[in-house]
Amino acid sequence: xxxxxxxxxxxxxxxxxxxxxxxxxxxxxxxxxxxxxxxxxxxxxxxxxxxxxxxxxxxxxxxxxxxxxxxxxxxxxxxxxxxxxxxxxxxxxxxxxxxxxxxxxxxxxxxxxxxxxxxxxxxxxxxxxxxxxxxxxxxxxxxxxxxxxxxxxxxxxxxxxxxxxxxxxxxxxxxxxxxxxxxxxxxxxxxxxxxxxxxxxxxxxxx
Length: 207
Known about the structure:
Elements: H1 6-11, H2 14-26, H3 30-46, H4 57-79, H5 84-89, E1 110-111, H6 113-116, E2 120-130, E3 133-142, E4 151-156, H7 167-170, E5 184-188, H8 191-205
Antiparallel strand pairs: 1-2, 2-3, 3-4, 4-5
């Protein structure tokens, strides 16, 4: 039986080391397996890691906005019952109803369809649907526009949105397919004002 000293293990190639680890685990030779794992960990730590590309200024702005919108989402979720279960229960009988997740799977604002298809530079949003009504809050930036030209859009049924305008008016570039399923919207230059309008719409939607 080979005496697997530290020097012998260090001299092995990566592949031979992995093979030895497999055999040691199969034969339950714990001390050899432990030495192999320690050597593999040491080698992995020494390998240079690929440097991640720095985000562009626009991507940094989008990431920051997604985080800020998510924070607003968490605040309103603490005030109103925005659970998918309640949305489904309150939407019984609505054909084709699908509950909206307030945030994406990573806890940030969701990626909008207009950004997804490349027709705008940024569309990140949070939304809640109950019945056939949806309340939406998002950041919106047209293609090739400077980041400072961004707007915050609140879209909801007219009954829930004071002074709401037709969605086509605040998003003239949107096709019928791209428009949010609501009949009115408001555009803001600052997020707190947009968040306040979204909060009011949610209060009426969940009443």
